[in-house]
Write a structure and sequence with these properties.
By secondary structure, the protein is of the alpha/beta class. The chain contains eleven helices and nine strands. It folds into two domains: 240 residues, Alpha-Beta Complex (2-enoyl-CoA Hydratase, Chain A, domain 1), CATH 3.90.226.10; 41 residues, no CATH class. Strand 3, helix 2 and strand 4 form a beta-alpha-beta unit. The longest helix is centred in the C-terminal third of the chain and has 17 residues.
C-alpha cells in the first residue's frame, strides 16, 4: 500500500474528513482491524494509523468480532493485541461517523469482558500512546508489554467524559487511580510499570519480537493450567466486586452523575470549540494545563 498524500486545504472535500496534516481519513471498513494466526498465536491489529487507532464504531465492531474469532478457534492458544503505525490507541474518536442502523451492535465493554472471561491469555503490545479507551483495553488484557517512550493516561476527564471502562482502580489501587482519573495526566512507560499497569518495558525496536516471545512462552505451557490460573486470578478480583465495578452505570446515582457531565460548563465549552474551530483548537484548549 502506498503512503498517503497530504491534500492542500484549498483542495479538500468538505464532505470528507482529514487529519491535521491533511491526510484523508479512510472510510470505515473491515480493514480497520486486522486478524492473523500463526503458530498458535492470533495477532489482532488496530489498523487506523492516520487517526492513531482512535476507537470508532468500526474499530469497536471489528475488534469484537476478532476477539470472538480468536476465542472460538481451537488452533489459537494466545492472542496479541497491537496497533498499526506509531500508536497503540489514542482513545475514542470524537469525530467518528455514526454506526449504520443495519449493523449488529457491538459494545467495547462487552468485548473487554470477553477478554476477561475467555480462558486464552491476551497480551497488549503498546507503542506510542494508550489513552482513554486505549489504556483500558490494554488494562483488560492479561499482560501489557510497552515500548520505551510509550505514554499512558485516562485523559477523558479533560473534556468531561467519564471512564468508558472502570478497570484502572483494580490494576493500580485507589491513590494512583485517582491521580490518573482525576487529573488527566499522562505517564511514561516506566511510571506505568511502577504503578502496575505494565508487565515489562522493552526497547521500541524490539517490541514485536519481545511480545511474540512472551506469547510463544505461554503457548508452550499446558493450556488447561494456563486457562485455570488466568481464571483463578480473575476470580479473586470478581469476589472483590470487579464485575460490579465495570458495570457501574447500573447504579442509578452514578449513571445520573455521568449523564450530567455533558452539562458541565468546562466540558460544554471544549466540545463547542471542537465543533466550531476544529480538532487542533480543541486540543490546545483541552491540554493547556497538561504540558
Amino acid at each position: 500500500m502506498s503512503d498517503p498524500i497530504a491534500v492542500p486545504v484549498s483542495e479538500r472535500d468538505p464532505r470528507k474528513r482529514y487529519t491535521p496534516e491533511g491526510f484523508e481519513v479512510p472510510a470505515p471498513s473491515e480493514r480497520d482491524v486486522l486478524y492473523d494466526v500463526a503458530d498458535g498465536i492470533a495477532t489482532i491489529t488496530f489498523n487506523r494509523p492516520l487517526v492513531l487507532n482512535a476507537v470508532d464504531w468500526s474499530l469497536t465492531y471489528h475488534f469484537g468480532r476478532a476477539i470472538m474469532r480468536a476465542e472460538a478457534d481451537e488452533a489459537v492458544r494466545a492472542v496479541i493485541v497491537r496497533g498499526a503505525g506509531r500508536t497503540f490507541c489514542a482513545g475514542g474518536d470524537l469525530q467518528g461517523s455514526q454506526r449504520p442502523d443495519d449493523l449488529e451492535p457491538m459494545n467495547m465493554l462487552d468485548t473487554v469482558l470477553r477478554i476477561w472471561r475467555m480462558p486464552k491469555p491476551v497480551i497488549a503490545s503498546v507503542q506510542g500512546h494508550a489513552l482513554g479507551q486505549g489504556i483500558e483495553i490494554a488494562g483488560m488484557c492479561d499482560f501489557t508489554i510497552a515500548a520505551e517512550g510509550a505514554q499512558f493516561g485516562e485523559i477523558q476527564i479533560r473534556h468531561g467524559f467519564p471512564p468508558p471502562m472502570l478497570v484502572t482502580p483494580f490494576l493500580i489501587g485507589p491513590k494512583h487511580a485517582k491521580e490518573l482519573m482525576m487529573t488527566g495526566n499522562v505517564f511514561d512507560a516506566e511510571t506505568a510499570f511502577r504503578m502496575g499497569l505494565v508487565n515489562r518495558v522493552v526497547p521500541l525496536g524490539r517490541l514485536d519480537e519481545e511480545t511474540r516471545a512472551f506469547a510463544e512462552r505461554l503457548v508452550s505451557l499446558p493450556p488447561t493450567t494456563v486457562a485455570l490460573n488466568k481464571l483463578l486470578v480473575n476470580r479473586v478480583h470478581e469476589l472483590s466486586g470487579f464485575i460490579d465495578g465495570m458495570q457501574w452505570r447500573d447504579d442509578p446515582a452514578l449513571n445520573e452523575l455521568a449523564n450530567a457531565t455533558r452539562g458541565d460548563t468546562v466540558s460544554a465549552a471544549r466540545l463547542d470549540t471542537l465543533r466550531e474551530q476544529g480538532w487542533e483548537a480543541f486540543k490546545r484548549q483541552r491540554d493547556e494545563h497538561h504540558r
